[in-house]
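Appendix B. Worked example

We walk through a single record from start to finish. Start with the input: the chain for O-methyltransferase, TylF family, Leptospira interrogans serovar Zanoni str. LT2156, length 194.
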Amino acid sequence: MTLEVPGDIAELGVFRGTGLMTWANLLESYCIGDRTKVVWGFDNWKGFTSFELQDGLENKNAQKEIGGFNPEVYYKELVDAIEIFDQDRFIPNKPRIKLQDGQIEEIIPKFIEENPGVRFSLIHFDCDLYTPTKVALKYLYPLLSRGGIMLFDEYGIHDWPGETKAVDEFLDEHQNLKLRTFSWTNSPAAYLVK
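Next comes the structure step. The output line below is what the pipeline stores for this chain.
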């Protein structure tokens, strides 16, 4: 859906990197001649460090707790996978994947300041929580190319009300946008097209 939309891909909440590597492999398969498209992975590599009231109650069964979904133990595996991926690409000397380390709500504004020309064709929200989702929507939506897609992994999922609330507040400010779902999967739970 975004092959002909200019811009990079952002993965917000990388965890083990399966989504990140999927996006990169799809670019290699379908955009082999376009070496400008990059997959940016944003994560703190520590899991959840805090919750807001909007995020609802902790739930250990869903790993919704401080330190939950901690990707730290997988970080080296991800870096190794990226190195292997880079060696096996059509043009291996130009990085296709770039990792950004830190709290999403803190690094996104800094990232945009350091990369003023960046635009996105696809942004995958998998940060689950209210504050990082709200901040990322504020800063990244203006950089989403027309026809670009935002995916929301936890929208409407009972255990993760924070992401849903942040998206709903964003949609209240952008009445022209409409959420959609894919009939063949529950993840991502919703998406919108700019």
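Two observations about the output. The chain has a mean pLDDT of 91. The first helix runs from residue 18 to 30.
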